[in-house]
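Thread: Newbie trying to understand structure tokens

Hi all, I'm a second-year student working on a class project, and my supervisor (Dr. K.) asked me to get a predicted structure for one chain before our next meeting. I've only ever worked with sequences, so writing a 3D structure as a token string is new to me. If someone could post the tokens and maybe explain what I'm looking at, I'd be very grateful. Here's the chain:
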Amino acid sequence: MRMPELTTELVIQKAQDWYEHEFRRFHQLRKSVFEEIQQNTNFLEFKYVGQYVVQPFRPYRLEYDYDGNINFQGTQVGEKGVDIGIAVDMISKMDSFDVAVLVSGDSDFFPVVRYLKDKLKYVYHFSVGRGVGQDTQYFSPALRGVVDCFQGFDELELLSNYINEHAGIPPAIMDTINLRAAELERILDDEELSYRNAPDPDTALIPRR
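---
Reply by user tm_fold:
Sure, no problem. This is what the structure looks like when written as tokens:
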């Protein structure tokens, strides 16, 4: 069996095919997950307000990693426009609710929360962080100060104890969840080790001047 010749055109075509497949795969996966959530919950509407972006493959844009390997700059860049989409929905549907529940620690939501409060709406603010309440400084103080209720949750606890693995969550998403939980455990272990090895400020030696 003769192997096809590896030409520049073939490499570019294969890369473009991969990115098109990745884009279609994400949207199909998102659709199936959202349909599953909608069927098993009492939400009026469960929707995705952002835009998942996969940059086109550009073989002329290269960068090198620390090992000297070439990385092409056609990459997944994640969700875009989520904050704007949420803010638009909160305002456009304002006549249909009395209480808004915002799950975010982003200070970018301050203007829309302030607007809702001016319109006599209640706003509950839930934030997810690492090591709550040690890391509550990562939550926007401005946002916390204007909402009616604030509550912080530990991300690792949520991922470890409140994920229903039998709810039909696609394996790709479960893999991402498990990787994130493992990363958080490693970070917390490193922080605990650093804390234990830190010198006691009451016994630390102060050099003479």
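A couple of things are worth pointing out once you decode it. Strands lie at 51-54, 62-64, 70-72, 76-80, 99-103, 122-129, 149-154. Residues 8-40 form the longest helix (33 residues). Feel free to ask follow-ups in this thread.
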